[in-house]
Amino acid sequence: MPHHHNPNQNRLLAALLPHELQGLIPHLHVAHLKAGEHLAESGERMTHVFFPIDSAIALFYRLENGESAGVSVIGNEGMFSVAQVLGGAVIPYWATVETSGHVFQIETEQLSGLLGNMPSLRDTLLLYAQASLTQVSQTVVCEKHHSLSQQLCQHLLLISDKSLSDDFRLTHEAIANMLGVRRESITEAAGELRDKGLIDYSRGHIKVLNRPKLEKMCCECYSVVQAEFGRLLGGTH
Q: Is the pTM of this model over 0.70?
């Protein structure tokens, strides 16, 4: 694998016992994912699972009327899809790449076969599944009780974490799809953040200029999710 990609850049891999990680590394392969790339359809059995490094994978649920609702965003704190490995077989969501970047990928069957000899890996995946429930639950709370500006702040912070940078590519359309609002609403909310000097953006490129103030404007949902991932998996983004 390329020398500049380290398994410790993914928190799930970093949480493994050293000897188990060493046993897993030969089976990991680095792949580059492009924004907008379709990864999985609802009910599809995936042949590979992904451990993001500096990319973000968005999960959506497709409604009967054809519309989609954002469920969660997966980055270097986790993997897609943990259900495939823990016996869930398929998931009711479809997945697409929200921000371009790299992942470690491994064949699903291969990883499932390794679990029996890697107890820390299974334990870590179970803890991640628990933390993910908090993220999904908090997304529901946020959509119901917090303003679009607060939701946008949280989303930008999450993407910054997952991109390992305060400078990343992310379109207003992608944000709107995830938050379930019109693109024009995101453009207006982002404009307000830019006017306050918190971010800058141009042609699908966003730069966080003042992270402390962005965190202050954000609702408590961001810190709740961060705290739960830290409690269960250790470390911080």
A: yes
pLDDT digits over 143-176, tens only? 888 999 999 999 999 899 888 888 888 889 989 9
DSSP, res 19 = H
Strand partners, 70: 60
pLDDT recorded at residue 194: 95
> Is 169 within 8 Å of 208 (Cβ atoms)?
no
Express each pLDDT in 185-217 by its tens digit.
Answer: 999 999 999 999 999 998 888 999 999 999 999
**CA distance linking residue 115 with residue 119, whole number of Å:** 7
Cβ pair 156, 169 in contact under 8 A: no
Task: Report the largest interatomic distance among the alpha carbons of the chain, rounded to a whole angstrom.
Answer: 54
Which two tokens mark 57? Answer: 């994978």
Distances in Å between the alpha carbon of 165 and those of 9, 81, 109, 213?
13, 24, 33, 17
Alpha helices in the chain (DSSP H): 11-14, 18-24, 82-86, 108-114, 119-145, 148-163, 172-179, 183-195, 211-217, 221-233
C-alpha to C-alpha distance for 150 and 169, rounded to whole angstroms: 20
Cis peptide before 81 (omega within 30 of 0): yes
The residue count of the chain comes to 237
Q: Which residue has the tokens 């990928």?
A: 105
